[in-house]
C-alpha cells in the first residue's frame, strides 16, 4: 500500500529570494499537523515568517536543522501518513530531487512564476498570475504605496487551490505612472480593464487598505465582475486616517526615515528592517513614482481625512463579504469595522497592525481559503 508523503521545502518569500534560513521548527517529529498549520519559522534578508504545512499528516522527519541556510526548494522535512514506514520515508528523501523534477509540484510552479507587463486599456500593469486555471480566480489589490510583493506570503499559498492574480496598481511598482485624478473610481476602472485584458469575467476580490476601497468601488461600478469580497483594513468605511503617516511614506527620502514610516504599518516593529526600507526607496525614486502617489494622496486623503464613503456600497452588497482588521492599526482605526453590516464575517485581530497579511499570515490564509471554498459553493 502506498502512503501519502509530502515534502516541506524552503519557500520563496518574494520574487528575489534565492535562499532562506530555517530559524526554528515550531513542531516536533511525531506531531500531527493540519494543512495550513505553521511548522517552522523562515528568516530572509527582509522578513521572518511562519512556514505553513502544505498537507495534513504527521511530521515524520526534520531533514534540515534550525540555523541552516538553504536554497529555495531545498528539503526541510517530510509530512506523511502515520502508517507510512520508515523505509518509505527514507526512500522518499533519497529520491526527492528526481521526484520533484518529474512531477513538478504546485508550489514549485507557483514560486517560479515571474511578473509580466500587461496592457489593460490605457494602463501598463505589472502582473503576477499563479496557480490553477479552473474556477473563479482571486485578484489581490494592494494598498497605497505598496506593490504586488505585499502579497508575497499569501499568493503562492492560496495558489495551491486557486488561480491567484497580483499586480501593481497604476502609479505603483513597475506599472505605468499615469493615475489620472488619482481617485478610487479611476483606480477601480484600471482593475476592470485588467480583468478584461486577462479574460476574467468575474473574480473573487481581496483588497488591503486603499485596495479595499478600490474593491468596493469595483463592486459599485462593475458589480458583475465581483464574486466575493475579502477586505483587509479597508479604506472607505470612515473618515479617520493617519494622513501624516501616509504622507511620510510618500516623501521619506532616507533609509531611517522610510523605516520609521513603514513601521507604522505593523504592530511588531521588528518586521520592518533597513533592507525593506531601501527596497521601497528604490521604487519611490523611479521617474514619476512620487508624483503619482501625491496625486492619489491628494484625491483620497486630502485635508487629513478619507475623501470617500463607501459604506452604502457594502450595505447594498449581495455577495459574500469577509473582513480582517488589526486591533492595533495605526493607519486606519479598527473602529471602521463597526461601520459594516451584520452579514459581513468579521475577524478582529489582537496585537496586529495595519497589515494582517504580514503579521498573521497563516491564520489569514487559512480563513481566506475557507471563505473562498464557502463562496464557491454559494455561487
TrEMBL record:
Domain (Lipoyl-binding) ranges: 5-80
GO molecular function, one term: monoacylglycerol lipase activity
GO BP terms in the entry: acylglycerol catabolic process
Pfam families reported for this sequence: Abhydrolase_1, Biotin_lipoyl
Cellular component, GO, one term: membrane
Any coiled-coil regions, as ranges: none
NCBIfam families per record: PRK14875.1
The protein's name: Branched-chain alpha-keto acid dehydrogenase subunit E2
Amino acid at each position: 500500500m502506498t502512503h501519502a508523503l509530502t515534502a516541506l521545502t524552503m519557500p520563496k518569500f518574494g520574487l528575489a529570494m534565492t535562499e532562506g534560513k530555517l530559524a526554528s521548527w515550531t513542531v516536533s517529529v511525531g506531531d500531527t499537523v493540519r494543512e495550513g498549520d505553521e511548522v517552522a519559522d523562515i528568516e530572509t534578508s527582509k522578513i521572518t515568517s511562519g512556514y505553513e504545512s502544505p498537507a495534513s499528516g504527521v511530521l515524520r522527519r526534520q531533514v534540515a536543522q534550525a540555523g541552516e541556510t538553504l536554497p529555495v526548494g531545498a528539503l526541510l522535512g517530510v509530512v506523511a501518513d502515520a502508517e507510512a514506514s520508515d523505509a518509505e520515508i527514507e526512500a522518499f528523501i533519497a529520491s526527492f530531487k528526481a521526484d520533484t523534477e518529474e512531477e513538478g509540484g504546485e508550489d514549485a510552479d507557483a514560486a517560479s512564476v515571474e511578473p509580466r507587463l500587461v496592457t489593460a486599456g490605457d494602463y501598463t500593469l505589472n502582473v503576477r498570475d499563479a496557480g490553477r486555471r479552473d474556477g473563479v480566480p482571486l485578484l489581490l489589490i494592494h494598498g497605497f504605496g505598496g506593490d504586488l510583493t505585499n502579497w508575497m506570503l499569501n499568493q503562492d499559498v492560496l495558489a495551491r487551490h486557486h488561480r491567484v492574480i497580483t499586480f501593481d496598481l497604476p502609479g505603483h511598482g513597475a506599472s505605468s505612472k499615469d493615475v489620472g485624478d488619482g481617485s478610487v473610481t479611476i483606480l477601480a476602472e484600471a482593475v476592470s480593464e485588467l480583468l478584461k485584458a486577462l479574460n476574467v469575467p468575474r473574480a473573487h476580490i481581496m483588497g488591503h487598505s486603499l485596495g479595499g476601497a478600490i474593491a468596493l468601488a469595483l463592486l459599485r461600478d462593475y458589480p458583475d465582475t465581483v464574486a466575493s469580497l475579502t477586505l483587509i483594513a479597508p479604506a472607505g468605511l470612515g473618515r479617520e486616517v493617519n494622513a501624516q503617516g501616509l504622507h511620510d511614506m510618500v516623501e521619506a527620502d532616507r533609509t531611517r526615515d522610510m523605516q520609521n514610516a513603514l513601521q507604522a504599518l505593523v504592530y511588531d516593529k521588528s518586521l520592518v528592517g533597513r533592507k525593506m526600507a531601501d527596497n521601497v526607496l528604490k521604487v519611490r525614486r523611479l521617474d514619476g513614482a512620487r508624483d503619482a502617489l501625491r496625486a492619489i494622496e491628494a484625491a483620497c486623503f486630502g485635508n487629513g481625512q478619507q475623501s470617500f464613503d463607501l459604506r452604502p456600497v457594502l450595505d447594498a452588497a449581495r455577495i459574500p463579504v469577509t473582513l480582517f482588521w488589526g486591533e492595533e492599526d495605526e493607519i486606519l482605526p479598527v473602529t471602521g469595522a463597526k461601520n459594516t453590516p451584520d452579514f459581513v464575517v468579521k475577524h478582529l485581530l489582537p496585537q496586529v497592525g495595519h497589515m494582517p497579511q504580514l503579521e498573521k499570515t497563516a491564520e489569514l490564509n487559512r480563513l481566506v481559503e475557507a471563505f473562498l471554498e464557502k463562496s464557491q459553493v454559494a455561487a
